[in-house]
Amino acid sequence: DAKTTQPPSMDCAEGRAANLPCNHSTISGNEYVYWYRQIHSQGPQYIIHGLKNNETNEMASLIITEDRKSSTLILPHATLRDTAVYYCIVGPRLNSGNTPLVFGKGTRLSVIA
Amino acid sequence: SAVISQKPSRDICQRGTSLTIQCQVDSQVTMMFWYRQQPGQSLTLIATANQGSEATYESGFVIDKFPISRPNLTFSTLTVSNMSPEDSSIYLCSVAPGGGAVYNEQFFGPGTRLTVL
Predict the structure, then answer these.
(1) How confident is the model at residue B17 (pLDDT cuts 50, 70, 90)?
(2) Which of A9, A37, A46 to mutate to test the interface with B (most CBs of B within 10 A)?
(3) Closest chain A residue to B59, measured at CA
(4) How many whole angstroms separate alpha carbon B21 and alpha carbon A51?
(5) CA B81 to chain centre
(6) Residue spans of alpha helices (H) in chain B
(7) What is the pLDDT of residue B39?
């Protein structure tokens, strides 16, 4: 079963920051927080992941609370192409190659012009 | 990284028939995973396929319905057998890096969209 809770949907104005929350209160010490998104009819796309420190890459920033029970994905300047379902996933380190990601319901983000 | 291709990209099939979906990866991987995504739903793991051994199926999925082959480290097939309209879904192949890999990411294929009439 998925270990995360996300709002089912959110809207964001184009050009504004999109802040997508995720609760993962049962996360264990060696579990990471992964974010993926799925644009309509495509395979899921990796965005970012973190363990306990905040992370930033060219796509997004990930803010993890100090107690690690929740996190926020930030898309700094949302565009229409960011309209997608965003999945927050908790799981072990993937480069062991043995444990697949378990997907929850995700948040459907609609970026509005 | 890993680039994954799937064949066919989509198909329309008659009930009672079977369809085999192919998944090809551009690098050798230990584990390959198959997911199903029913219309309007999230992804559900069907099974994990390890080269040289039987696939491991998740609860609710059985080998007779979804037989999987894994003949080498870059290829796998998923067969959807004796199809019914309830099998209409997107089927996705996925891989994760092996031990010692620098990156910590799971990669997904583009999916196979199956419609059963």
Answers:
(1) very high
(2) A46
(3) A1
(4) 35
(5) 14
(6) none
(7) 94
**Contact residues for A82 (Cβ-Cβ < 8 A; gap 6+):** A12, A18, A37, A75, A109, A111
Helix (H) or strand (E) holding B112: strand B112-116
| Nearest-CB residue to B110 (from A42, A98, A106) | A42
Give the rounded distance of the alpha carbon of B73 from its chain centre: 14
Average pLDDT rounded to a whole number, residues A37-57: 93
Q: Is A97 left (phi over 0), alpha (psi -120 to 50) or beta?
A: left
> What is the C-alpha to C-alpha distance for residues A71 and A93, in angstroms, rounded to an integer?
18
Average pLDDT over every residue of A41-55: 92
* Torsion, CA A20, CA A24, CA A30, CA A36, rounded to 10: -30
